[in-house]
Amino acid sequence: MRRAAKRDENEPAIIEALRERGCTVFRLSQEGVPDLIVYYRGFTCFLEVKMPGAGKKSRDDRRTPMYRPPRMTMSRIALLSPSQRNFVCSWPGPWQIVMNFEEAWVFIHENVHGAGWHEDAADRLAQEAKRTEVPVEVSGG
Fold this sequence. Notes:
The protein has helices at residues 11-20, 74-77, 82-90, 101-113, 121-132, and strands spanning 24-27, 36-40, 43-49, 95-98. By secondary structure, it is of the alpha+beta class. It has a single domain, classed as Trna Endonuclease, Chain: A, domain 1 (3-Layer(aba) Sandwich), CATH 3.40.1350. The protein has a four-stranded mixed beta sheet with strand order 1-2-3-4, covered by helices on one side. Strand 2 (36-40) and strand 3 (43-49) form a beta hairpin. The radius of gyration is 19 Å and the shape is globular. The chain starts with 10 loop residues before the first helix and ends in a 9-residue tail after the last helix.
């Protein structure tokens, strides 16, 4: 009989932050399957949570800023077990290895809103609309 898999220490904080922002998150425990399945605004993905500094230390283990998506580097893929690598190589849908909430949120939002999305996108669009001063017609009804 297989023992329960050890969960990464940063996983509960990632789950809590995603749920606070409206994501539906389920923890998965099957061998070789990523840790979480996440649904947000019509987008579903798998997230494999790893602790920063787990395995071999690499440059991409640092906290990822909100405007930059996490990079899928060979050093991150090397953190996967053979059964996890088998799963992600055969899975046709979106998945990502994340080490913190910010990486998870950027990955989800870039898939929902498109590449280059970041926190102040709405502000930039509002400023652009003011600069162009496009008149808005209001129809009575």
